Amino acid sequence: MVSEKSEPLFALDIGTRTVVGLTAIPGTKGLTIKAVEILEHQTRSMLDGQIHDIPRVAELIRRLKARLEKKVGPLRDVAVAAAGRALKTCRGKAVRAVNGSRLEADAVRGLELEALEQARRELAGDEESAGRYHCVGYSVVEYKLDGTTIGNLLGQRGQEASAEVIGTFLPKVVVESLAAALEAADLQMRALTLEPIAAIHALIPASMRKLNLALVDVGAGTSDIALTAEGTVVAYGMVPSAGDEITEALAETWLLDFDTAETAKRNWRDAEIRFTDVLGHSRKVPGPEFVQSMAPAVDGLSELIAREILSLNGRPPAAVLLIGGGSLTPGLPESLARKLGLPQDRVAVRSVDHVAGFARIPPRLKGPDGVTPLGIALAALEHPVQTATVRVGSAEVHLFDFRDLTIGDALIQAGIHIRSLFGRPGAALTVTIGGERRVVPGSPGSGPEIRLNGSPATLDSPVTSGDHIEVRPGQNGKDARCRIEDLIPPLQSLSVYVNGVSQPVPPRVFMNGHRVKPDTQVVDRAMIEAYIPEQLRDVLEDVGRPEAFSQREIHFTWNGSSVQYVHPNWIVTLNGVAAEPGTVVAAGDRIEIVEAPPPVLADWLVTNPERSPGRPALTVTVNGQLVRLDGEDYRAFRCNGRPADPGTPLQDGDDWVEVWDEQVGEWIISDLFRVIDPEGLRPADARSFHVEVNGAEATFTTPLHTGDNVRLYWR
Hints:
five-stranded mixed beta sheet, alpha+beta, six-stranded mixed beta sheet, 34% strand, disordered N terminus
């Protein structure tokens, strides 16, 4: 705050083309301007807001100061602004694993600051040089949770969160060179602001700063941009193109040197523009035709400005305010409105016929190029930027309070990595249960313990000069641990009866193919299956009767060849019916398990139909009717040289031999007489019996085969 005293307030706007100085006296009705001086640079000692030739700039300031002192007396202290065109913008992004933890305010703020820190390192090129830049503001471009864009991270849960910000930085060299030029002109910097902030002080009262507005200062070499929202400046930008580009386009179109083109441009309102080109030709160009020749260059400039506004703001602002000498370029407001998709009345050149805080504004400052020097004076009176020195641990950190300073700003300027202050979340467990992937988060890491002057604080806590900040990093979270039973839904045991006794069948649990207990600790990337067994084989295994479907092998010889027979040790029935291992079991079923009788030859013969006893059945046609003769046994057996039969037990090492019954041969005609009585076919006067097989004469001993056609008849 500049106090009211004998020496007036001295505000100085050091621009690329001109230097504007004014003096004012605070009063009850606001600042009263006592004197104004404007001088132009004779050389390119200023480029894009940066002082390139300190002695020449200091000499121009000294001359301007001398002129003012003749009117108001000695001047020692001065309020200045760092050029908005000197600001650097850069994007930064931070990604952090959160493993399902809920995101609290300090964690979200820490993620933003981490992204801002990355932007500053990106801008500087390396970490060591990052301290050469002061952050003067940033805005969030985008939050993401698990790869999906989200409006606000606060209170959200997910596996991975990220924040992208666009930060605005002021190189220290800009402030240092500004201070050096003032010192060389015997002046002391008593107040510092940024040109966009100064312009906002002059044009946009606090009540309007809730609006999303774009302020564009179109100068000679650059167009500086500031965006307001929620009561403050949220972003800054710069386009390296402005009034000089229009001048250069006119010079090329009409073959003019730069100074002649600049003079012609400033006279664009004249009905006729007169100039002499580089070939010595005197020209008279109608004003409208001259203005039309600027249109392509104006369109190109508005395209660049619109693109930068959209990049910074993410969408068209509510309105655009144009200031600076270049804003007077004909057609610029209309072209910019088209590029932004705004109504033409939402883009306007702002003059300063009246600015709150001034008793009267002299005519020389009422144009759009008078906004910044007036704003510098107001900012010096109401909110001068000062240097704040705070201690972070045992280190001193110097900050410029271009905005409300917080502990987070101090930590970044101190070179502390924000990420290192937040404990890492414990490792998560990733498991697959029944084909569905699940993540079990570890415990969240804790945030830093911050104390400001001995009291608890957060990253957002404001700081002032002389404050002492102490920070203790947070603790890492614990890795996830859980048991299988914590992840699977409760499974009811199956109850069945085994030989009349009720038996509970517990659920089956497998991890990575191995059967485990439900209270087994889960390992990362585990494949888990849990189910109630349904097949009889599994049920009997779980009730302690895994042998119920066991078998034994019996090896013996059959007619000299080695053979084997597999015989069950037990007979298993389910609800009175013989059951197989895969038979499905339901609650309350009754299972009976009894020891199987010893194996006999008949058991083996049944499982080997090609070796079963008896000759095949015979089916033939007799006198047009089908006749079937059942098969007959025509073998006998010997086991280890002794007579045997199908009921003889089978044992390992036995030697079995088939013995053919010589009295039993193949089927013949006489075998038909077991089921057919020839006398029943005999007519009363018949004397002889005849047989034909398949149309050929046959006898009683003619062989028969299935499918034969037999005719029996009398004569």
